[in-house]
Design a protein that fits this description.
heterodimer; A: mainly alpha; elongated; B: 4-stranded antiparallel beta sheet; 12 helices; globular
């Protein structure tokens, strides 16, 4: 009788193996035929345009709260005018990518896991295969492409809206001159920061969608299983984003700075 | 991989009456410690119906999934239309599946697509057929099963029986020569189940489709085995009691604990003295 630890290790190894297999199959699916173009367009719309509202709201309030909090701290050093620099650096390098990714995990990760999980338990995935369609090409590839390319776009929007939210607080609560706010942003922003902020979302988008697809396609246990898959997808996606953020930051610091 | 000559020979053999279109040879499958198919062998002859009976969990649906390649057998050999499928990759299975129509339990319709898109799915997505021709074929198939007026509805707007019939339409839209029915009438009331049974009979007798029917609904199994479809002088389809010759073309198999415990026609099944079968039939 295998011990609990042995079973856990075997289960974890199997999950990693299946995840790697799925990402490999999705990678091959991007470069080989058939390619389901209308599904790709549909997913770009659902993942990109569909997530705009949550990303805008998250970005706006984060930027505003950041400016408010930073103002208090900067006042201790008499440095209130550089609040824009702090808001922009924080938003572009860290908060924009991570918060956008976490918002996407909640909205997209859960949706993908629930949709694919339902398709598994109602035999729709088997029906697809029986009808001659590869579910990875039809369902996973469009979502992965949309995740990889829309996460950076949404992050840039979130960054901008966050900085705008910071400006509202800086201008009307902290009484910082608008010109001073915007000039401190441009002066304090380096190309390395932009690269840092733009590189992360590609990784996060890939992780969120591939994890959600993997969890969704391995759903078992009927409707209760779909609920469990949704939860696992959000939890695993969020942990993956936060831990990947640390490692990607370390790599980019070593490469760029 | 089969050579051109081998494929040609297989094609010639399959064109003859009485040719085996599916061969299941000593197939075994287990999930961890649970043995689902212990040692199962059977053959489906071109134009015939094979009815697989058995209690829940006896391995009936598993056998169908192995034929389509949705599951891989642990041991044994499976031939479909002259091609060995048990060792084929997912990609290599696609041409084999082009001639197999499968109806899943509950229909497994794509719930985000309309009836039209469901029925024409394979033709829209996996072939280069012009859209007008696909639409024409979809309407023709829905007309055949009598659901043309529901063409633009979503699956959620259909009754259980209608969903099963749309599933049959989806499977027959690309004109497969073999149909696999997995519990196509389970959960339906007797009147609705009969309409689904009649679709199976029509496909078998009017479209010359070979079929495997997996069920534990005896009433439906005997109805399909003992009836046939024909067109009257006006071209109208009639379902009538089958001739003795036609009845013999429907063979029954009963599975129990992963083994075949009965194989024969409807009359032999009814006459069986096996206590388990008697219990099952009663």
């Amino acid at each position: 009788m295998p011990s609990l630890l042995e079973r856990w290790v075997k289960h974890a190894a199997l999950e990693v193996q299946e995840y790697m297999y799925l990402t490999g199959a999705a990678f091959r699916g991007v470069f080989t035929r058939p390619i389901y173009r209308h599904d790709i367009v549909e997913q770009f719309d659902q993942i990109g345009a569909g997530s705009l509202t949550v990303v805008l709201l998250a970005g706006l309030f984060t930027g505003a709260a950041l400016a408010s909090q930073s103002g208090l701290t900067l006042d201790q050093f008499g440095a209130r005018p550089v609040v824009g620099r702090l808001v922009s650096a924080s938003m572009i390098k860290e908060l924009g990518p991570v918060l956008t990714a976490l918002m996407l995990t909640g909205r997209i990760g859960s949706g993908i896991a629930a949709e694919l999980g339902s398709m598994v338990v109602t035999d729709q995935i088997n029906a697809l295969r029986a009808l001659g369609t590869d579910p990875v090409r039809k369902l996973v590839v469009p979502r992965v492409l949309a995740g990889i390319f829309m996460a950076p776009v949404l992050t840039v929007i979130s960054d901008f809206i966050g900085i705008l939210g910071g400006w509202v607080i800086a201008r009307y609560q902290l009484q910082v001159n608008s010109g001073l706010y915007w000039s401190s942003i441009t002066k304090g922003l380096y190309m390395q920061d932009v690269w840092m902020g733009l590189s992360k979302p590609f990784v996060f988008g890939f992780l969120i969608v591939t994890i959600a697809c993997h969890v969704g396609l391995r759903t078992t246990g009927g409707t209760a299983g779909v609920g469990k898959a949704t939860t696992v997808s959000v939890v695993a996606g969020s942990v993956a984003v936060i831990s990947a953020d640390f490692f990607v930051t370390q790599i980019l610091i070593a490469l760029l700075y | 991989m089969a050579t051109q000559t081998e494929r040609q020979t297989a094609k010639q053999i399959l064109a003859e009456p009485g040719a085996p279109v599916i061969v299941f040879d000593h197939v075994q499958l287990a999930f961890d410690d649970k043995v689902v198919l212990r040692d199962v062998s059977f053959t489906v002859i071109k134009g015939h119906t094979k009815v697989i009976l058995g209690a829940s969990g006896s391995g009936k649906s598993t056998a169908l999934k192995i034929i389509v390649g949705l599951l891989k057998a642990d041991a044994g050999v499976v031939w479909v239309n002259g091609q060995r499928v048990d060792q084929l990759s997912e990609q290599a299975l696609m041409p084999v599946r082009a001639d197999l129509g499968m109806i899943f339990q509950e229909g497994a319709l794509f719930d985000s697509l309309t009836v039209r898109e469901n029925v024409g799915y394979k033709l829209y997505e996996e072939t280069d057929m012009p859209l007008e021709q696909v639409d024409k074929r979809v309407e023709e198939v829905l007309g055949f099963i009598g659901l043309l007026e529901h063409i633009d509805k979503m699956p959620s707007e259909l009754s259980g029986g209608q969903r099963r019939r749309v599933a049959i339409a989806r499977a027959m839209a690309f004109k497969p020569s073999i149909m696999l029915y997995d519990e196509a009438t389970t959960g339906l009331d007797p009147i609705t189940a009969t309409t689904v049974d009649e679709e199976m009979i029509k496909l078998r007798d009017l479209e010359d489709v070979s079929s495997i029917i997996v069920t534990h609904q005896l009433r439906d199994a005997f109805f399909v085995a003992e009836h046939m479809a024909r067109r009257d002088a006006q071209g109208k389809v009639q379902i009538v009691p089958a001739t003795p010759q036609k009845e013999r073309q429907a063979e029954f198999i009963m599975l129990r604990d992963g083994l075949i415990i009965f194989e024969g026609d409807a009359d032999s099944l009814r006459a069986s003295e096996d206590p388990y079968i008697r219990d099952f039939l009663s």
